[in-house]
């Protein structure tokens, strides 16, 4: 009976506490530019989520160490999504009004991106999905608030086919070849399908689609199919534990790793480290950067943060692929604000709406990027009202058994293929949502 | 002192058969509903609406549906997530494929198709029972996951397999702001809650409970197991389907099959078990426990850390959240195996005697 009373008392107390907490959520206005950080440091995708989050946070810390954005200090707060859409939405709602309002959200999951795409225009907060998210959101005429900066999955898929064609000795050699797409069975994995289908129809190669269910540890049947049909190339659209499983299965099946291409989420250290030499020769696309331990920005982070014990995460992971991804995403978030300050007043805190203008008018030239420490890492990115992507450069890097090395020159996605696809998909979205394309006048504002 | 029915004489059958026979109950529920409609909108901010209250209302509705099947009819189901998915996707298809389709009709159509699927997957319940049935209903979960991922028609051939809706409105009243969404969900919940409460007291509800308590004995006294079990599946999956449609349309706005994965099925089953099997009130308690507690812990722990001057990392908070949440589930199940609803009724019993317990 005692216990039961205790249970009753706790329940009442918990309900009381919950209501008390809610009232403390009220926010204080500050003179800082607030960047919410959606992360997943736990769950099935944590091995990849953690380095990204570390890089993102380190860059924001570095901005403060450098003196802020024209003097405006940045503040940030992490929120754990666990890669789950409903928790991601909760995080968005929690952080969007905090500390004077969120500048920009980077959902870091295709599922959350889709959900937030519906919410962000109403709240007037831009979304950056650097290299992921919905590929058609590159069309700024329809997706006013989405910024898939410096590449989309369609760019990635297109460049992978280009590299295969180059290795074969020309696009005409693709005819009659067989490419298998092994993809994570989610909106993320399916993003690859349209571009590969388009390319398959164009060059006359056969494309087979092999889905792998979340989280991707069960691939026996997929690899049985690959063993039977022996495709000439395998494209891996995987994420998290699926990637290392895929490489181990490839090793067990005896499929040459040189003929496997991964998307950039499948081309980082956590994916291949466990497989080690077994993954030697495995290729992955990089949306511009790879492992950049020698770059100026990494040296600066090490000197200004990690040397003073202010860094985030382990020191030896600084400069790895996903860490760089975090740095690079945060850099866009910050540079957009800097650009917006040019128009709305230097040294002021930008609202989400003002920051959106900055993201739409990004003009990161090579000298600017070099000054930021991204020399040799990134190529210029410049966005406009019609083009929210800004750059379509990519490279291929290959795992040599102990580290990633670039194995190709710069590629550029074929705009002649991608532009019409983006436009068609964006128009379909607009028709479904009954939204009209932005007028040139709207672009000016 | 305040809560006792002494002196409330029922002089007609009508009075005897009211949903809430005790006047205090009636007034308390009316006051609660009135407060939810009128009071809450003045008290809470957008975050509370969007992140806590709306998910809570929708999942309460789903838990209510699951409770009818699991709690009242005793048929353990792990297919609830699938029925939610059917509700959401079929409501979506009804909504976009038929020009000028009213929103409420589309949502109810989602429920209708969920009923069909629910009854179909309920057929094995005529032969298999208990845990075996739970395994059989898993088939519904896997089948629906597969269907919505693979069959392009359901997602209107969207490349990514994700669908979205917007510009919701009912009779010219647009459902756009958090407050409107909240009221819309609340209206659904109140209507379905009262219907369910009434249904479980009716002949059919008593048949369900008879089947749950002992199906052989129920059959002997003339209750048709086929009818009783299939109606339970039908009613339950209708409510769950409508909840799924609301989850997609109102809460997420854009969703993919992962929103209705096996995890959702487990979550709903846990809500029913923790809240209290065979109790309408329990569905609300269970939903509150499962929806609100993790979010609360997630914000409470860093706040506590700040107070004592320790900054807790995001990962630690998340891990601690899982540990405390798990421990609480075990603790509640040990202390009160009949769920939170039992605690509620114990509290009511005590209130009856208070302040003179002897």
Low-confidence stretches of chain B: none
The CATH homologous superfamily of the largest domain in chain A: Response regulator
Q: How many separate structural domains of chain A? A: 2
Query: Into which percent range does the helicity of residues of chain B fall?
Result: over 70%
Oligomer: heterodimer
| Largest sheet features of chain B | 2 strands, antiparallel
| CA-atom Rg of chain B in angstroms | 21 Å
SSE sequence of chain A, one letter per element: HEHEHHEEHEHHEHEHEHEHHHEHEEEEHH
The most extensive contact between chains is: A-B, 53 and 51 residues
Shape of chain A: globular
CATH topology of chain B: ABC transporter involved in vitamin B12 uptake, BtuC
Number of domains of chain B: 1
User: Span from first to last CA of chain A?
Assistant: 68 Å
- Report the portion of residues of chain A in β strands: 5-15%
The averaged pLDDT of chain A comes out at 88
Sheet/helix structural class of chain B: mainly alpha
The level of helicity of chain A is 40-55%
Task: Provide an overview of this structure.
Chain A: Belongs to the leucine-binding protein family. The complex is a heterodimer of chains A (445) and B (358). Chain A is α/β, with parallel strands linked by helices and 445 residues long. Chain A has 2 domains: 33-152 and 292-392 and 422-444, Rossmann fold; 153-290 and 396-414, 3-Layer(aba) Sandwich (Rossmann fold). Chain A is built from 16 helices and 14 strands. Chain A has helices spanning 2-24, 46-65, 85-95, 110-123, 153-168, 187-190, 192-203, 220-229, 241-253, 269-272, 296-304, 321-344, 352-360, 366-372, 415-433, 440-444; strands spanning 33-39, 74-80, 127-128, 146-147, 178-184, 206-212, 233-237, 260-262, 283-286, 363-364, 381-382, 393-399, 404-406, 411-412. In chain A, strand 7 (233-237), helix 9 and strand 8 form a beta-alpha-beta unit. In chain A, helix 12 (321-344) crosses helix 13 (352-360). The termini of chain A are far apart. Chain B has 358 residues and is mostly helical. Chain B has one domain (45-353): ABC transporter involved in vitamin B12 uptake, BtuC (Orthogonal Bundle), CATH 1.10.3470. Chain B contains 14 helices and 4 strands. Chain B has helices at 13-16, 23-43, 46-72, 80-97, 103-122, 130-150, 178-201, 203-213, 215-220, 225-252, 262-275, 280-307, 314-335, 340-353, and strands at 163-164, 169-170, 173-174, 254-255. Chain B has a two-stranded antiparallel ribbon with strand order 1-4. In chain B, strands 2-3 form a two-stranded antiparallel ribbon. The longest helix of chain B is centred in the middle third of the chain and has 28 residues, at 225-252. Chains A and B meet through helix 1, helix 2, strand 2, helix 3 and helix 4 of A and helix 3, strand 4, helix 12, helix 13 and helix 14 of B.
């Amino acid at each position: 009976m005692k216990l039961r009373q205790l249970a009753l008392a706790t329940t009442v107390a918990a309900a009381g506490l919950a209501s008390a907490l809610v009232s403390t959520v009220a926010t204080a206005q500050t003179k800082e530019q607030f960047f919410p950080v959606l992360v997943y440091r736990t769950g099935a995708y944590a091995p990849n989520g953690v380095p990204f989050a570390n890089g993102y946070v380190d860059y924001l810390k570095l901005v403060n160490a450098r003196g802020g954005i024209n003097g405006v200090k940045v503040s940030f707060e992490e929120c754990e999504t666990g890669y789950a859409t409903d928790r991601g939405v909760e995080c968005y709602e929690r952080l969007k009004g905090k500390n004077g309002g969120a500048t920009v959200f980077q959902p870091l999951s295709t599922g959350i991106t889709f959900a937030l795409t519906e919410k962000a225009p109403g709240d007037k907060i831009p979304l950056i999905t650097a290299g992921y998210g919905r590929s058609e959101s590159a069309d700024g005429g329809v997706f006013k608030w989405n910024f898939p900066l410096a590449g989309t999955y369609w760019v990635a898929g297109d460049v992978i086919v280009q590299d295969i064609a180059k290795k074969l000795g020309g696009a005409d050699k693709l005819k009659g070849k067989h490419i298998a797409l092994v993809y994570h069975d989610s909106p993320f994995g399916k993003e690859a399908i349209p571009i590969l289908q388009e390319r398959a129809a164009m060059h006359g190669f056969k494309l087979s689609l092999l889905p792998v269910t979340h989280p991707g540890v069960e691939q026996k049947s997929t690899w049985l199919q690959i063993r039977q049909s022996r495709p000439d190339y395998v494209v891996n659209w995987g994420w998290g534990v699926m990637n290392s499983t895929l490489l181990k299965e490839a090793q067990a099946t005896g499929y040459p790793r040189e003929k496997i291409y991964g998307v950039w989420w499948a081309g980082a250290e956590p994916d291949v480290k466990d497989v080690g030499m077994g993954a030697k020769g495995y290729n992955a696309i990089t949306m511009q950067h790879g492992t950049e331990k020698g770059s100026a920005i990494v040296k600066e982070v090490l000197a200004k943060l990690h040397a003073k014990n202010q860094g985030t995460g382990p020191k030896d992971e600084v400069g790895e692929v996903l860490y760089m991804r975090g740095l690079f995403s945060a850099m866009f978030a910050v540079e957009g604000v800097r650009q917006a300050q040019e128009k709305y007043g230097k040294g002021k805190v930008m609202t989400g709406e003002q920051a959106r203008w900055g993201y739409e008018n990004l003009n990161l030239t090579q000298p600017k990027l070099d000054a930021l420490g991204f020399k040799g890492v990134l190529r210029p990115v410049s966005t406009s009202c019609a083009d929210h992507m800004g750059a379509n450069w990519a490279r291929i890097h290959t795992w040599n058994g102990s580290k990633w090395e670039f194995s190709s020159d710069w590629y550029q996605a074929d705009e002649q293929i991608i532009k019409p696809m983006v436009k068609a998909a964006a128009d379909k979205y607009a028709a479904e949502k009954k939204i009209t394309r932005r007028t040139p006048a709207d672009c000016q504002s | 002192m305040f809560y006792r029915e002494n002196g409330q004489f029922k002089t007609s059958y009508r009075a005897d058969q009211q949903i809430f026979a005790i006047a205090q109950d009636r007034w308390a529920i009316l006051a609660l509903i009135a407060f939810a409609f009128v009071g809450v909108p003045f008290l809470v901010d957008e975050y509370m609406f969007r992140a806590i209250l709306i998910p809570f209302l929708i999942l309460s509705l789903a838990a209510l549906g699951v409770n009818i099947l699991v709690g009242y009819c005793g048929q353990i189901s792990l297919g609830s997530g699938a029925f939610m998915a059917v509700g959401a996707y079929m409501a979506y298809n009804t909504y976009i494929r038929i020009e000028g389709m009213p929103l409420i009709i589309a949502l109810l159509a989602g429920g209708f198709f969920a009923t069909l699927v629910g009854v179909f997957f309920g057929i094995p319940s005529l032969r298999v029972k208990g845990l075996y049935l739970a395994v059989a209903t898993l088939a519904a979960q896997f089948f629906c996951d597969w269907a919505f991922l693979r069959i392009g028609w359901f997602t209107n051939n969207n490349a990514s397999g994700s669908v979205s809706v917007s510009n919701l409105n009912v009779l010219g009243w647009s459902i756009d702001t958090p407050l409107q969404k909240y009221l819309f969900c609340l209206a659904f919940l109140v209507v379905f809650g009262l219907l369910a409460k009434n249904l479980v007291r009716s002949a059919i509800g008593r048949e369900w409970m008879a089947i749950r308590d002992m199906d052989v004995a129920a059959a002997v006294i003339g209750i048709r197991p086929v009818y009783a079990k299939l109606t339970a599946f039908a009613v339950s999956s209708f409510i769950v389907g409508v909840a799924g449609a609301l989850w997609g349309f109102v809460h997420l706005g854009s969703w993919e099959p992962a929103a209705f994965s096996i995890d959702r099925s487990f979550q709903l089953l846990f809500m029913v078990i923790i809240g209290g099997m065979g109790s309408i009130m329990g569905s609300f308690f269970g939903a509150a426990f499962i929806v609100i507690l993790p979010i609360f812990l997630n914000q409470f722990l860093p706040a506590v850390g700040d107070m004592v001057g320790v900054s807790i990392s995001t990962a630690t908070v998340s891990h601690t959240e899982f540990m405390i949440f798990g421990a609480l589930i075990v603790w509640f199940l040990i202390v009160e195996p009949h769920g939170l609803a039992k605690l509620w009724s114990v509290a009511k019993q005590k209130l009856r005697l208070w302040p003179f317990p002897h």
